[in-house]
Write a structure and sequence with these properties.
Structural class: mainly alpha
Number of strands: 0
Distance between the termini: 80 Å
Number of helices: 3
Strand content: under 5%
Shape: elongated
Helix content: 55-70%
């Protein structure tokens, strides 16, 4: 590998890094500009990085109540459904 290839590789990496950096800066500034006010933007950014809690579903959560099922069948029969 000659020095020209090495220099060309270094310049290519620097160019790509520069483009990624400025793309992130422009995206950040666009997000700030598109928000209604700065405090709302800061609050949204703070909650973006927090882990979300998931509610664990228990088997009882989806149990069918027989009394509700009976009432629903009676009402459906009333309306001929």
């Amino acid at each position: 590998m000659s020095i020209e290839h090495f220099t060309l590789g270094i310049l290519t990496v620097l160019l790509i890094g520069q483009q990624v950096y400025w793309a992130r800066v422009v995206l950040n500034l666009t997000n700030k500009l598109m928000s209604r006010n700065y405090s709302e933007y800061v609050q949204a950014e703070k909650f973006k990085n927090e882990p979300r809690l998931r509610m664990e579903n228990k088997p009882d959560d989806y149990a069918i109540d027989p009394e509700d099922e009976r009432k629903a069948n009676e009402l459906n029969a009333l309306f001929a459904l």
